[in-house]
Each structure stands twice: as C-alpha cells, then as structure tokens.
Amino acid sequence: MKRFLYILSLLAVVLASCKTRTNTSTVDRSVAQLKSFYFAKNDSMPGLAKAVFTIEERNDTGLVWNKDSMLYGTSIKRVVPRFIFAATPSAAYLTMADSIVQLTGYDTLDFTKTPIYLTIRSADKSNTKIYRMNVTVHHADPDLYTWTELSSGVLGYSDCDQRVVEVGDDFIMLMSTGYSMRAYRSADGTMWSDLGAMNGLPKGTRVRQIISDGSKLYYAQDSSVYTSTDIINWTETKMNRPVHTMLLYWNKQAWALVTNDDNMYELAYTDGQELTLSGLVPGSEFPISDFATVCFLSSSLRERAMILGGFAENGRALNCRWNLEYSTHIKENNGYRLQDYSQDRQDFKGFTGISVVYYNNSLLLFGGVDDKAKYLGRDIFVSTNEGITWTKADSTKNRLPESYQARQKLSAIVRDNNIYIFGGEDSEQTYSDAYKGRLNSIDW
C-alpha cells in the first residue's frame, strides 16, 4: 500500500512539472522582450565589453542605456551588438538613421548613426516591443583639467599682502597694505563686495597667516591670539607664552607654533582663549612663514595634515614636509604624531610661497619660488602617495591658462570638486585675480 501511494505521489509531481513547462512554452511564444544587451569583446577597444547596459521597460517604448559612459576615445562605429531575448522572436531588427538591419548575431554596426530603435516581434507574432538604444561615450578626456579665469582682479593696490579663506559659504579676501587692512566677500570668486576695514588687529599683521575654521578667524602675534567671528572686528587674548604663528585649522582644532618652557618650538592648539601644548616638538628649522598647509583623510583613514616648505627662523628656504597625523592607535601625545618626510626623502626642493590642495586623491602644489628664488610658472607638482614623492603634472592634461602669471603667495581652495586659485604676487605686483579648475572625470 505504501509503495502504491509513493508511485501516485511521484506521478503527480511529474504531471505537475510537465504542465508548468507546457504553460511556460505557451507564454514564451507571445513574449517580445529584451533581457540583456552588450557589445562583443574587441581587443582594440577594451571599454566595449566592460560597458554595462540598463534595460527600462516602459508602457510604450522601452529604453536601453549605459549609466556610466564608456571611456573617452572608445569607438562605436564598428561594434558587434549582442542581444539576449526572453523568448526566441519571430523577427528582431534595428532601425537606424539610414537603414534597417535584420539581426543575425554577427552584425558589425555603426552605433553613432542615431537614433537607433530595436524592434522585437514575438514567436507567435501577437506582440511587438520597441526599445530605444542610447549608447553614450565620454566626449571629454577624463584626465584633462579645465581652467577658467573668474575675475581679473579685485584690489586696486599694486603692493599689498593678501590671502583668501573660506567663511561659511563665501570666499573672503583679506588685504593689508601695511597701513590699512580690508576684507572682501564673494560667493563664487567672480563678483566681490567690499566689507570695509578690519579693526583690532595689531600693526604689522601678516594676513597670510590668518586661518579660518569655517566660521571663526584666528591670528597670532607676539604673545597674543586674535579672533573674529564677523571678519571685521577682532578680539585680542593674551597668552602665557610666545606664539610665533598660526599654522592651520585641523582635526577640529586651531593649531599654532609656540615656544615651550624649555625655550623650544612646540605645536599647540587653541580655542582662541587658551593654549594647550601638544607635546609635538619639531626641530629648530621649522617653518615660521611662507609655508603651505593641507589637510586630508589618508588612505588608512587617519586624519592628516602637512606643512610644506617656507622659511625657517634663520631665513633659510626649507624643503621640509612635516606630516601631522592623528589616530586613536597612536599612544603618545594624545594620539598625535609629527614626522618630517624630508629626513629620508630629500628630493623635494626648498619652496616658499607655495599653496597645496588635496584633490582627486592627490596633492597638487601651485605657485611659489624655489630656493634660488626662481618662480615655478604654470607648472603644477603632484604627489599621488600623500606627500612622499612629487613629480611635475603632465602639462598637456593639467596646466594653468596663459593669462596666469608666475607668482608666489597665492591662495588655493577646494570646494564642490573645483579648485579655486586666488591672487598672489611676483617681484613687481600683487595679483587679486581668481581661477577655477576642474578635472573632467571628478564626478563621473
């Protein structure tokens, strides 16, 4: 009896299975649908086979398109398209700009002849589906930087000290002639408004050493730290030790170079009211002026900052690259570490008046003069290994425009995947122009 019931059960499963296959076959004959599309491999165009296409089913005409455009220079004039259908169609053909092509599976076609439509007719000829084919290739070189001039000049002074910082959503240009200090505001680097004279800063203020945390400005001189929340009015706070200069705003702290109790340089951080010594004591030849700073998140996901070049207290142009790092895994100095890369990598020249930004996972160095007072012109230097080694950028891909004059002491800022360069000076004049650069593929 049990054997008989087992046979009946097995027979029921087999019949059910046959019924399902029969129904599927019946449905398939009426289906007109594209399931997959790609280009056959072509060794001379490796980007073809890597292109991923999305198929959007719509009530009327469907859409086939590649979300990520194929690499610049990829040719689609002679390609072999591959189509996978939900069921074998009775007919499938492409309607192109100048012809109709019945698909054989071996067709070599020109996909630049747009618009292109794919028509599928079901096996029983009861249904027809049309898809529009959109194949996109980047028309711009992804490695090319595009530079444009935003403003030819803001200031009416030929000899002054100037710097641009960010405050809120604005660029702020700070200027000092030695007798007066003014501030200018711009939302995009194109149009600027005069905010007026700055009050409360000491005589001899070097505006290039003013730093910003995004909402508050800091400046240090002698044993005082000056702060401002409205750009114009400044408040002085006396400190308990000499403060040589503000260095940078990094890891949610404003950092300064001070003299500690042993009469040695030490890095300290401040909220503008008091100084906290970090325990980081650099050598005697640490830059005190005309250095560059840059902050970024390292490949190991550690907060990092670099202080590059500049003049030592004895007036020597430095080739230093001080690396400032924070990690919870660093046990000493509350998680901070300071290293001088120039100790074992001295191929970096002595530069002063440079500006450095972190962009597209690389450090880019602009402007400045070398240790022989030679201007760098429109050359841009690049480090792809976080400041260890540096090379000149490919001038066919990334070079400042002809209107840009060789200079030092410029300001460089990255915002919204754009690089902004402001002002600077040479031996004859002060610049207050503005340029914007962008890598074509930065947001592809």
Summarize this, please?
This protein is mainly β and 444 residues long. Helix content is 7%, strand content 40%.
Give the arrangement of secondary structure elements:
Layout: H1 2-28, E1 34-39, H2 47-50, E2 54-56, E3 62-65, E4 81-85, E5 91-95, E6 100-102, E7 116-121, E8 128-134, E9 145-151, E10 161-167, E11 170-176, E12 181-186, E13 193-197, E14 211-212, E15 217-221, E16 224-228, E17 235-238, E18 243-250, E19 253-259, E20 265-270, E21 275-277, E22 292-297, E23 303-308, E24 321-326, E25 336-340, E26 351-352, E27 355-359, E28 362-366, E29 369-370, E30 381-383, E31 391-392, E32 411-415, E33 418-425, E34 430-439
Parallel strand pairs: 3-8
Antiparallel strand pairs: 1-4, 2-3, 5-6, 5-7, 7-8, 9-34, 10-11, 11-12, 12-13, 14-15, 15-16, 16-17, 18-19, 19-20, 20-21, 22-23, 23-24, 24-25, 26-29, 27-28, 28-30, 30-31, 32-33, 33-34
Describe the structure.
It is built from two helices and 34 strands. The chain has 444 residues and is mostly beta strands. Strands 2-3-8-7-5-6 form a six-stranded mixed sheet, with no helix packed on it.
DSSP strand tally: 34
Shape descriptor: elongated
**Radius of gyration, CA atoms, in whole angstroms:** 32 Å
Give the integer mean of the pLDDT values: 89
Give a short account of the largest sheet. 6 strands, mixed
Strand content: 35-45%
| Helical content (DSSP H or I, runs of 4+) | under 10%
